[in-house]
Structure formats: C-alpha cells, structure tokens
C-alpha cells in the first residue's frame, strides 16, 4: 500500500470514528472539515462542537434563543446534525447586533460559539462543497471499507511485531 493510500485509509478511519461519535455522515464530515479549514478552524473542533450542539438541542437549554432566531425547534430536531449546524449557523449569521450574535452562538455551542462566528459569516458552506467535489461522495461510499482496511493493517503490524519478538526470544 502506498503512502497516499495509507493516508486515505487513515483519513477514512478518522472520519468513520468521528461520524460514529457525532452522528454526522462521512460525506458531510468531509465538507465540514473543509468549511472549518476555510474559516481557520481545526478539523478536530468538529466533534466537540457537534457534541455541544446535540447536548443543547436535547437538553433544551437554548430553546428560547433558537426560537428567537426564527427556527422551529421541532423541525430542527428532525434534520441531520450537519443540517442542524448549517441552519443554526445561517440564523446566527443573520443576527445584526454583534453582541447578540456572539451570545446566541455561545448559548448554543458553548465557549466555542464565539470562534464559530467567522465560519458562519464566511459563506463557506457552498464553497467547501465545491472545493472537495466528489471526494465527499467517494469517502462516504468507501469509508467502511477504508476503516476495515486500516484496522487490518494495524493488526498486521502487531502480528509482524509478535513474529520478531518470537525470533528475538530464540536468539
């Protein structure tokens, strides 16, 4: 397996794990990673941001804020996590008063909410999808395969190490 293939397998494995943790589909995660990168954010921020958003939506701590943003809470809960994020981001970005915008974002996304304002204002949602092109669909389709290959490669490395430990014991 080439270095390029190993990197693709590692990326797909990370995406699959993040998808399992957040409920976000792998194809959406590829686009979200690009959105975060375009706004100067790290891909590692996706998991905690989506975790906080899910906790907020399920716990009801920001219900009034979400309603003030003009979002139907029951309809929002029916959407995928990526759609929820984009819906909330667009609504927060539409708030004119900067302090109210920051407060709404922080109430929904916690401390990281203020850092997300640049992502919400960048119009990066459509741009990121165009930048990643068909990669999102390919990785979404093959993520489980890449994850399985990555797991098997890791197991192979462990077996090779065990072989050499056995050889060293005989020496």
Q: State Rg.
A: 20 Å
Integer average pLDDT: 78
The biggest beta sheet, please? Answer: none
The share of residues in extended strands comes to: under 5%
Structural class, judged by helices and strands?
Answer: mainly alpha
- Calculate the terminal CA-CA distance, rounded to whole Å: 31 Å
Unreliable stretches: none
What is the 3D shape? elongated
Series of secondary-structure elements, N-terminal to C-terminal: HHHHHHHHHH
Counting DSSP E segments of at least 2 residues, the number of strands comes to: 0
Outline the structure in words.
The chain has 171 residues and is mostly helical. Helices cover 80% and strands 0% of the residues. The chain contains 10 helices and no strands. α2 (26-38) packs across α9, α6 packs across α8 and α7 (98-109) crosses α8. The radius of gyration is 20 Å and the shape is elongated.
Brief summary:
The protein contains ten helices and no strands.
Give descriptors for this structure.
171 residues, mainly alpha, 10 helices, elongated
Question: Topology, please?
Answer:
Blueprint: H1 3-22, H2 26-38, H3 46-59, H4 63-68, H5 73-77, H6 81-93, H7 98-109, H8 113-121, H9 124-132, H10 135-170
């Amino acid at each position: 397996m080439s270095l390029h293939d190993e990197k693709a397998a590692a990326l797909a494995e990370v995406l699959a794990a993040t998808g399992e943790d957040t409920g976000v589909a792998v194809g959406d995660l590829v686009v979200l990673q690009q959105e975060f990168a375009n706004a100067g954010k790290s891909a590692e921020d996706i998991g905690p941001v989506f975790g906080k958003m899910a906790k907020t939506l399920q716990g009801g701590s920001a219900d009034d804020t979400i309603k003030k943003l003009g979002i139907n809470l029951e309809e929002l809960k029916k959407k995928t996590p990526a759609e929820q994020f984009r819906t909330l981001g667009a609504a927060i970005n539409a708030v004119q008063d900067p302090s109210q915008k920051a407060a709404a974002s922080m109430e929904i996304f916690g401390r990281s909410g203020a850092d997300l304002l640049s992502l919400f204002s960048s119009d990066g949602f459509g741009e990121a999808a165009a930048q990643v092109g068909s990669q999102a669909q390919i990785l979404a389709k093959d993520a489980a395969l890449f994850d399985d290959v990555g797991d098997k490669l890791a197991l192979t490395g462990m077996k090779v190490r065990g072989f050499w430990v056995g050889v060293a014991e005989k020496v």
